[in-house]
Amino acid sequence: LTASSVNGRVQAEVLGPEVLACALRSENGDVKVGLAAEIGFTLDAAAARGRVTGDTGLALDPAALGAFRSRAGSGETRLTLSSANGSIRLTRR
């Protein structure tokens, strides 16, 4: 699953384990991802001028200034999320 925007928000929901990779990018807007509770993932997120946040229980480890990495469960679904001028939000469904 791949989506990008120059001026606007990018939003997606990953509801099943058949999605092995999700790459979302916005130049001027937020990136939001909802994950089914049973999905294991590996996250690489970078928000140059925004924040990276997640639901309670999602550990976000700083990788570098404005960048975060996290892993949950099997880590099977790879999430690559970025925003130059917006925030990134990861939630469980």
Helix content: under 10%
Q: What fraction of residues sit in β-strands?
A: over 45%
Put simply, the count of helices is 0
Trace the largest sheet across and list its strands.
1-3-9-5-8-7
- Give the end-to-end Cα distance, rounded to a whole number of Å: 18 Å
Helices and strands, in N-to-C order?
EEEEEEEEEE
Count the strands?
10
Shape: globular
- Kindly report the average pLDDT value: 89
Low-confidence stretches: none
**Largest sheet: number of strands, sense, barrel closure:** 6 strands, mixed
Overall radius of gyration: 12 Å
Oligomer description: single chain
The helix-and-strand class reads mainly beta
Structure notes:
- The structure is a single chain.
- The protein has 93 residues and is mostly beta strands.
- The chain is 0% helix and 56% strand.
- It is globular and about 30 Å long.
Give a quick precis of the structure.
The chain is an all-beta fold. Helix content is 0%, strand content 56%.
Topology:
Elements: E1 2-5, E2 10-14, E3 21-26, E4 31-35, E5 41-47, E6 52-54, E7 61-64, E8 67-72, E9 77-83, E10 88-92
Parallel strand pairs: 1-3, 2-4, 3-9, 4-10, 5-9, 6-10
Antiparallel strand pairs: 5-8, 7-8
